[in-house]
Amino acid sequence: MKVKLIETKNPKNIPEILREKSKEVKKITPEILNLAKQMIRIMNKNNGIGISAIQVGVPIQMIVVKNCDQDFIFFNPKITSFSKREVVYNEGCLSFPGIFENVSRPEKVKIEAKNIDWEDTEIEADGILARCLLHEIDHLVGVLFIDHI
């Protein structure tokens, strides 16, 4: 199945699917691996640092994030803790091309997820990676960055 990025240039006209809650992934299938490859291609083509499956019309709990020029795929990510200190940063989203807004998010975050080998993994992140993880996990519950402004 070929997918494409769901996007809008009008924050008042948000495609309904971007508000959907994504379902838990039970196992990695060849279709999910193919989807992950397409998401990475779309993210890189659009100079992004993160993308969630819902942004390509597939409501499953899968995100891809880029860190140090390496792409990481996570399934069923859950935030386990975050710092009280927040940082404001001019944030954008592949689904809202050309729109950037100042968003306050925790400076540090810890998440648990399944990795591409279906192993439990824990990620501690700060800075732009923390922001990216929080942003993409928001997508999985229908929350958009513009909801934070």
From TrEMBL:
**Protein name listed in UniProt:** Peptide deformylase
Stated role: Removes the formyl group from the N-terminal Met of newly synthesized proteins. Requires at least a dipeptide for an efficient rate of reaction. N-terminal L-methionine is a prerequisite for activity but the enzyme has broad specificity at other positions.
Look up and give the organism this protein is from: candidate division CPR3 bacterium
- Protein origin, superkingdom: Bacteria
Q: Could you tell me the keywords of this UniProt record?
A: Hydrolase, Iron, Metal-binding, Protein biosynthesis
- Which sequence ranges form a coiled-coil region, renumbered to this chain? none
* Cofactor remark from the record: Binds 1 Fe(2+) ion.
Q: Which PANTHER family match?
A: PEPTIDE DEFORMYLASE (PTHR10458:SF22)
Cross-referenced Pfam families: Pep_deformylase
Q: Which reaction equations make up its catalytic activity?
A: N-terminal N-formyl-L-methionyl-[peptide] + H2O = N-terminal L-methionyl-[peptide] + formate
Q: Which residues form the active site?
A: 136
State any GO BP term from the record: translation
